[in-house]
Amino acid sequence: MALPTIVLKDTLPGRRTNEPVTFTVDSELQEDLWTATTNTGETLTCQRLRANPVPGKTNFITVATFEGSVELTLTGPATQHVEGITEREPVETDAFVRLDTGYFDLEMCSGTAEGTGSSKWGLRHFSTLKEGIDLLPSGNNAIGGFYGPFFTPENGLINPPEHTTVDIEIIERGPVLHHYRMNGTIPDGLLDELKGKTFSIDWKFTHGTPYFTRSYRVDDFQTVINGRSITNKITVGDEFEAGQGNVVFDRFQAYGGTRYRAGDPYAAELAKMVDETIATSTSNTAKFEEFRRQLTGNIEAAHWDLYWRLFSSWEGALDNTEIRKRLARVRADSHVLADLPDRQWAITEAPVDVSALPHETIFPGPASKTAEFHSELDRAMIWWTSAPSGAFQIVQRRQSGWVNWGTNGENECPELPVDVQIKTAYGMFTDSWQHVADQLETAPTAHRA
Description:
Blueprint: E1 5-9, E2 15-25, E3 33-38, E4 43-48, E5 58-67, E6 69-77, E7 86-87, E8 95-100, E9 104-109, E10 122-128, E11 143-146, H1 160-163, E12 167-173, E13 177-185, E14 198-206, E15 211-218, E16 222-225, E17 228-231, E18 233-234, E19 236-241, E20 251-254, E21 258-262, H2 265-280, H3 286-294, H4 305-309, H5 320-338, E22 346-348, E23 361-364, E24 367-373, E25 380-389, E26 393-397, E27 402-406, E28 416-417, E29 421-427, H6 433-441, E30 445-448
Antiparallel strand pairs: 1-6, 1-30, 2-5, 3-4, 3-6, 4-5, 7-8, 8-9, 9-10, 11-19, 12-13, 13-14, 14-15, 15-29, 16-17, 18-28, 19-27, 20-24, 21-22, 21-23, 23-26, 24-25, 25-29, 26-27
Helix pairs in contact: 2-5
């Protein structure tokens, strides 16, 4: 059998670092690991992909570091130990796996469905090996949760990451690629059209690559959120934490310029309703008394989840009738305040200092390439979505130390189409983040020589 030569070409300038590449051989090969040699003399590990086999063919994945173009030729089965992704001792009790990818140290959790920040499924610890700083040190937040349209004032604030668990299946696991699929069922809220919905999330991590990939599938749905018809659009939320008085990222920027409105009237109205409810509700449930103890004091410094958990139909602190009445008032007042003339749109080419703005929150307009970064420490998190999100909610809240990247507009209105691919890069990329975003968007091509 003649083993093929694959040509990789990059249409963008600059260096690719451990870029994942898939290719196909016109033969059914059985060994899990093969080696390939490049025209520059490097040896690459190629992992046979087990999912979706095609008769008479074999699919492989490898990672290549190159600039411009490179050729690789499959040489034969691997006969020695190869470097690659390894597993570490996990931190959280609900951890499914903790990976050392050769670039990231991250922990994937299945959740506990106990209704708290530490209950969430997703990535609950995340750092680069070089920097060694966990962006989620407490485990009380997570990267990768999705919320809207289920987490909205209309639906009784059901939070899928906190209120359910996921089953995680291994699709591929080898030194080059780990591919996992989370499967779960969203708890029912107040809206009948959103009941009984299931979801799955595919996560892919490759050896030494400075980014990871994910995509979300949710059962078809159609509802009305924030007065708008919403069909198969979701809010994906990535959270980070640094402790009160500090933030992991202190700037936000959208590719090509940022169009945004500052402030979050909905959050302010919800906080006001929390205060009113604590003072006036006649609920005598044990859960209400628990929240009353937690929410008495400086709510501005509290974890954001405490703003809404009081009104979650899942939590049961209030009965559904009281939840509907109170959230209807929050919703109506927020609709008016969000669109008042004094909430003008700002247009800027410069990075936005979110913490300096009202409620330490902005709502940027449509984009497919965005970044949050630290103005002094050089670290940057970069997101590319294969279709633009219609809006974002960006929070950099020094009072609580909480930072958020969410694909929703005002009043929790979801804006990211389901099935969109998300690539997320992290590293010392502040000065080059636009170029990194371009590389996420435009992958190198691979074809037979």
